[in-house]
Amino acid sequence: MKRTFFIILCSLLLLTGCWNSQELDNVALVHGVGLDKSDDRLNVSVEIIKPTNQQGGQGNGQGNGQHIVLEKKADTLLEGARGLIRYAKRRLEFGHARVWLIGEKLAHEDFVHVLDVIRRDQMLRLNSYLFITNENPSDILNTSTLYENLTAIEIASALEQTQFVSDYAPITLREFYKLLEGSISNAYVPMISIKKVDGQTVTSIDGTAVIKNNKMVGQLNAKETTGLNWLLDHVEGGSITVSLNEKEKVSLEINKAKTKTKTNLSEKNLHVDIQTKIEGTLADNVTSKKINRRFFKDIEKKISRHVENDIRSTLKKLQQELKTDITEIGPETYRTYPKQWQNIRSEWNDIFANAEVSIHIDANFTHEGLIKESVHREHRKPYNNPYPFSK
């Protein structure tokens, strides 16, 4: 009996609540943070929730009636956060921050040290997404939304759609720091900008910034970013479209993709073998061709060449222009040759730039869809109709 009472008493002591809890009425919840260089100082902008009793935003895709964007110049991020209390009238709570935007002016300097407090302060979360922009970060945070009430939430939700596209490379702060502390210390960050679409201003994820020595040294376009995703084995889905001629096109919807990288190092001479296997379903078929094994073989070869061209264009930019390795080639070499790596680590980017790379792509259609014939093909037989009750 005494033992049971002691256990119950200890359990009650553990249910005393959070010692460092904050009342929502006393804090401003930050969901997006922007940092840029301005007059040799740090320009800090934050997107915070605007408390309201109204339901929803302003409609028509505006959606910015639920947020406030504040800016403050400071010498450090922490100083800026404290200074913004003067305008917000509340203490800023960064525990809900989903997006961090780095302006390009700051990105071309050693911006990683500016972010030091993110890892040091337990209030900040490392599963937030990181971006670099050539716009003013506050303009990004002020952009009208299409679905969400907060711009930062909408941007973060877009990165969850990587299973449908392969031309941008999302990265969290935790993954970013993991790259910087890895064997090579290079990294990549997606680019975000503002575009006009049918007269409406929207944010657009377009391209990838290449990070070397804690600075942005260049940028990959959308096509080169797709090649980077193949090299990183990050392709989860999406589609590949190839042309047979000016009018006829065929698309493969990717169901499965795998890239393996093997390296052969002899002193400072590096040879790389990249093998990619792709499996998918026939999606768009804008042709009058008969769908058979010969048709598939022809398209599979074209898709393989298409993917190889994407990878080649990425490697050309990284090797010849930027001389920066942000692929799996460096980590794979480190894993294969751990002892030799210590002697070549400081010269790795130059070794990577001179590496010979062989690429082998194996694309396969595993399903032709619901019908076997093209809809444009004449003299189709009745048994090719997947809808037997229609005429």
TrEMBL record:
Residue intervals of the Spore germination GerAC-like C-terminal domain: 206-368
Tell me yes or no: is Transmembrane helix among this UniProt entry's keywords: no
Which residues, if any, are the signal sequence?
Answer: 1-21
Give a yes or no for keyword rRNA processing in this entry. Answer: no
Q: What is its main location?
A: membrane
Spore germination protein N-terminal domain boundaries: 21-194
> How is the protein disposed in the membrane?
Lipid-anchor
Which UniProt keywords are listed? Germination, Lipoprotein, Membrane, Palmitate, Signal
The compartments listed are: Membrane
Family, according to the entry, reads as follows: Belongs to the GerABKC lipoprotein family.
Instruction: Output this protein's name.
Output: Ger(X)C family spore germination protein
